[in-house]
Write a structure and sequence with these properties.
Elements: H1 11-29, E1 35-42, E2 48-57, E3 60-68, H2 77-91, E4 96-102, H3 107-112, E5 116-122, E6 129-136
Parallel strand pairs: 3-4
Antiparallel strand pairs: 1-2, 2-3, 4-6, 5-6
């Protein structure tokens, strides 16, 4: 056996790890499709302005990233994209969504959308907290 430490992202290697976990899970839960879900806003010239990206799996929308360009913040765009992503997740049979955020990021934004804090890590990063949030769909 050879153990390696890598300091660069290797997409194929990470995918092989994910595939291994999915194979294990399938033995217990049966095969479940994990499908990417991304909703973006672009300017008329094609420049990315904002987006929500994650995946739907096990009847949940696992949100990996939400970003809105500073020039477009506080105009309701983030809410609009989150609502569109939620609609799509529901159409795929999802019953809830999950996201995490740092204390200086978007905690109040997610709360206004109906997310609740279900876990917290204090001091991550130092001087801040990390919050794990969940939203049950109606």
């Amino acid at each position: 056996m050879q153990v390696e430490v890598l300091d660069q992202h290797d997409e194929a290697l990470v995918q092989a790890l994910v595939d291994g976990v999915r194979q294990f899970n399938a033995k217990i839960l049966g095969y479940v499709d994990s499908t990417p879900l991304t909703v973006v806003a672009k300017s008329d010239d094609g420049k990315l302005i904002a987006g929500v990206s994650g995946r739907t799996v096990y009847q949940h929308f696992l949100i990996e990233v939400v970003w809105v360009d500073e020039s477009a913040r506080t105009q309701g765009l983030g809410r609009k994209l989150m609502e569109r992503a939620e609609q799509q997740a529901k159409a795929r049979g999802c019953v809830a969504a999950q996201v995490d955020t740092l204390s200086f990021q978007a905690l109040d934004f997610y709360r206004k959308l109906g997310f609740v804090v279900i876990g917290e890590i204090a001091g991550f990063p130092l001087g801040h907290n990390r919050y794990f949030m969940w939203k049950q769909f109606e």
